[in-house]
Amino acid sequence: MTRTVRGFEVAGIVQGVGFRPFVHRTATRLGLGGWAANVDGHVEGVVAGQMEAIEEFARRLRTEAPSLARVRQVRLHEAVDGQDAGTGFAVRLSTSAERAGQGPAREVPPDAATCAACLTELFDPADRRFRYPFINCTDCGPRATVIEELPYDRARTTMRRFPLCTLCAAEYGDPADRRFHAEPLACPVCGPRLAWQGMTGEQALREGVAVVAGGGIVAVKGLGGYQLVCDATDAAAVAELRRRKRRPVKPLAVMVSDLEAAAGLAWLGSTERAALTSAAGPVVLLRARKAAAHHVAPAVHPGIRHVGLFLPTTGLHHLLLHDLARPLVVTSGNLTDGPITIDDTEAQEQLAGVADGFLTHDRPIHARYDDSVVQVAGRHVLTVRRARGLAPAPLPLRIPAPVPLAGAGAQLKHTFTLATEDRAHLGPHTGDLAAVATYEAFKSSYAHLRDLTGIPPQVLAHDLHPGYLSTQWAQRQPLRRIAVQHHHAHVAAVAAEHGLHGPFTGVAYDGLGLGDDGTLWGGEILVGDLTEYRRVGRFATAPLPGGEAAVRHPWRMAIGHLYGTEPLGVPRPGAWLTSGFTARHEQRSVAGLRSMIEHRVNTPRASSAGRLFDTVASLIGLADSVSYEGEAAVRLEALAGGGRPEPLAHRIVRVEGLWVYDPTPTLVDLLVRLADGETAARCAAAFHTTLAEVTAGLVARAVAEGAPRTVCLGGGCFANRRLLTEVRGLLRTQGLRVLVGAQVPAGDGGISYGQAAVAAARLAKERG
């Protein structure tokens, strides 16, 4: 029978996921000869045998790949000169092609949580990796955090400084072993070691465990950066962590040993269980059980109905949970607003005043990756923060980018995106760029991922706001720039993730973003596609007394709404209604703010849904000042619970061709109900229902005038589960198709992806 020789190429996430061993096993079972190698970011090689078997080989590569792989394309082609199949099937050394920005982008595998097989070995006294903190195989372990260059081989990772011992080398070279070409392969003989004040290994671990058990705080070197760890059941330890880290109330993530422990703290359905046990290992925001107060200190998530839980992501975490036998607070190793620390010396300097000791090791972290955060709405897992385990896996672009490009992102919850052809690589969460260290971390992360993926941008997309550091950075680059309006980017991100070409109706609710008319937006109804949009609805504007100060102090925003909301024909609340609120604040301050509003001094106006949440939270006495962005809205959602009171009064009017929501009747009704003795919780619930009905009303009016019946919901306000659920339900009752982001964060963490999608569409349109 005729022996056929074919070349093959597999694109996607096919490095660092056990793909070459899988290719070897598949070819061998089909009786095929040839070879496979990593080349840049893909796998290619030669296969020889019967044509029917070769076609079956290609099919299996598409459909039976390892769980961590993401196969985008399998291509067979005529073997070129010099592509000799040889005898048998071999895995060859990787090569790096001359790219010069050409060819497919390299796709970087994310880190993966410890797999079941490694976990079994970790606690098996007979196994040579018994209690070894750095256990891993082709199905789990560090990837993006240790890769220095592609193609993905040990020599191009931070593991290159650890030569394999004889036993590990045998596993690495054995096609039948699950550690065949597992690049971070290690064992107690040849791999990284734990360290604690001159002690190593098991002794170092015991010392760290003892400090946590005694109520202390330990800085632990994790996969993508240092983490601060303490006993989640110890109220004093949690309070001290908050004091030292300068994080007064923002919820802290809790790591638990297994699903059973998680179920003791929070309600778990099948979707929640799947999210917790996924290879990404994210923090999952879950509804806490009332009895959970007996298991974790109340200060872990004060005043919030949801708790962020995750399972151990590395062997070290499993050992800590096993030895301590209690839930642990595991939070980013940084000070408030700074990036997670990855350098050992830097960690010792920055965290010296926070940690009582450092449980570290000698494997360098090459790339900074904080923990990912997701939440469940209905049966859908929605990404809140895309980082370790999720980034930088590529996302689709409905309209391919004609040239390599990048989205520079926003200011808060910053990310960047690199895009080429039909794929966009959304970089890991960086943080808020106002901090110098965070800004420097962004630039470093951008340069690393740009070089790693082989995407040299020719175009930069950025926000309209000139004050954003991401915008200023983009403007300093010697590249063509495309400005993208903030809220268009929000809804475009949703549309692009779902493969929409357009047109669509967009609902963009967030804190603040610069509109194309030079004013601040935040409660917007848009109609458009990925290239352009027009505004068809909005919230009424209100002043921000003191500008940025009104964001940090919601009571100022409440004064702005009470005394300066855009006049739309409804009288503002009278003194008898507002006296209770103003009496809570020093009268001269209130008078001063009213004077600022009257004379328009440092009182920029905004049509913001997020700032209206702040106002309501302050009026009901929930949050007059906040310590983190979005705190007032988070607390308001928690207070609302599942109550279903009648909605507050609301009104939509026509202003200069736009449908405008006037919040004055809503605020008047809110104050009347409070004066009549209605509880703050019922008022908070009524406000959520009101905003949902307002949104449905704005969209219905737009659709009646010809707006598309596909609606994209974007912006940070849609991280609010209750608002999202109610809005989605009401719009669906109107027969509308409703889309929300799943892999892309609804908030500003998704802005860069939206910018990239808009830039790609505009460039494609230019080229016809």
Short synopsis of the structure:
Belongs to the carbamoyltransferase HypF family. The chain is α/β, with parallel strands linked by helices and 768 residues long.
Question: What does it look like?
Answer:
With 768 residues, the protein is an alpha/beta fold. It has 4 domains: 4-91, Alpha-Beta Plaits (2-Layer Sandwich); 199-363, DHBP synthase (Alpha-Beta Complex), CATH 3.90.870; 381-502 and 748-766, Nucleotidyltransferase, domain 5 (2-Layer Sandwich); 540-708, 2-Layer Sandwich (Nucleotidyltransferase, domain 5), CATH 3.30.420. Helices cover 33% and strands 22% of the residues. The chain contains 23 helices and 29 strands. The protein has an 11-stranded mixed beta sheet with strand order 7-6-14-8-9-13-10-12-11-15-16, sandwiched between helices. Strands 21, 22, 23, 24, 25, 26, 27, 28 and 29 form a 9-stranded mixed beta sheet that branches. Strands 4-1-3-2-5 form a 5-stranded mixed beta sheet, covered by helices on one side. Helix 13 (486-497) crosses helix 23 (751-766) and helix 15 (554-564) packs across helix 17. The longest helix is centred in the C-terminal third of the chain and has 25 residues, at 680-704. It is globular, with a radius of gyration of 27 Å. Residues 202-389 form the YrdC-like domain. Pfam families: Acylphosphatase (PF00708), HypF_C (PF17788), HypF_C_2 (PF22521), Sua5_yciO_yrdC (PF01300), zf-HYPF (PF07503). Residues 5-93 form the Acylphosphatase-like domain. It is an enzyme of class 6 (ligase). It catalyses: an acyl phosphate + H2O = a carboxylate + phosphate + H(+); C-terminal L-cysteinyl-[HypE protein] + carbamoyl phosphate + ATP + H2O = C-terminal S-carboxamide-L-cysteinyl-[HypE protein] + AMP + phosphate + diphosphate + H(+).
